[in-house]
Amino acid sequence: DAGITQSPRYKITETGRQVTLMCHQTWSHSYMFWYRQDLGHGLRLIYYSAAADITDKGEVPDGYVVSRSKTENFPLTLESATRSQTSVYFCASSEIQGPQYFGPGTRLLVL
Amino acid sequence: GENVEQHPSTLSVQEGDSAVIKCTYSDSASNYFPWYKQELGKRPQLIIDIRSNVGEKKDQRIAVTLNKTAKHFSLHITETQPEDSAVYFCAANSNTGNQFYFGTGTSLTVIP
């Protein structure tokens, strides 16, 4: 589990601000994912990436931007945070067609 | 896309009893079904998985069964212990193999 980390672990921001959540993995996994977890909705996929410079939308991509210039990093940016983006964000990584391993999560509160 | 439904949403059992959580999926192309356990305030952790070429897999007190024809799979926990209390998520992969679709979770409480 120590192979995938997220920062910050907790973040409080205000509506309209830009926020970037970081994700770093040391396994050289091809795939990386961003989920948000809200009560009653389980885990919902925001964006994923199959390799460096290849990203694709998930179920709930609106309001988020991702990039992947290096295999090990997959930052998630909220361009203009809204209260509805208050959530717990999990990053995950996997080999091709393998299980996903999750980071410790980032708790984000948008005031 | 894939739709995964999970039942029940909450489950309480006495310590030592068995617990069963059921999931159904819609995409017949799905061929990989992991189960995750999430303790309060922690990350989801993989506890067992099954691929479509087998019908059952067991790991100590945990087992998963898969019925491809009916498109459902189940998690079985025997001899439950208080430390089994957590939220459990099932998932099914997409037809490309690399995205997962998660169920909405089952909150399991094991009563000592």
Describe this structure in words.
The complex is a heterodimer of chains A (111) and B (112). With 111 residues, chain A is mainly β. Chain A has no helices and eleven strands. In chain A, strands 2, 4, 5, 6, 9, 10 and 11 form a seven-stranded mixed beta sheet that branches. In chain A, a hairpin with a 6-residue loop joins strand 9 and strand 10. Chain A is globular, with a radius of gyration of 13 Å. Chain A starts with a strand and ends with a strand. The model of chain A has no long low-confidence stretch (mean pLDDT 94). Chain B has 112 residues and is mainly beta. In chain B, 0% of the residues lie in helices and 56% in strands. Chain B is built from no helices and eleven strands. In chain B, strands 2, 4, 5, 9, 10 and 11 form a six-stranded mixed beta sheet that branches. Chain B has a five-stranded antiparallel beta sheet with strand order 1-3-8-7-6, with no helix packed on it. The N and C termini of chain B lie far apart (41 Å). The model of chain B has no long low-confidence stretch (mean pLDDT 94). At the A-B interface, strand 5 and strand 10 of A face strand 4 and strand 5 of B.
Strand runs of chain A, count:
11
The quaternary organization reads as: heterodimer
Helix content of chain B: under 10%
- Tally the helices of chain B: what do you get? 0
The poorly predicted ranges of chain B are none
Detail the topology: elements first, then pairings.
The complex is a heterodimer of chains A (111) and B (112).
Chain A: E1 4-7, E2 10-13, E3 19-25, E4 31-38, E5 42-51, E6 54-57, E7 64-66, E8 76-78, E9 87-94, E10 101-102, E11 106-110
Parallel strand pairs in A: 2-11
Antiparallel strand pairs in A: 1-3, 3-8, 4-5, 4-9, 5-6, 7-8, 9-10, 9-11
Chain B: E1 4-7, E2 10-14, E3 19-25, E4 32-38, E5 45-51, E6 56-59, E7 62-67, E8 72-77, E9 86-93, E10 100-102, E11 106-111
Parallel strand pairs in B: 2-11
Antiparallel strand pairs in B: 1-3, 3-8, 4-5, 4-9, 6-7, 7-8, 9-10, 9-11
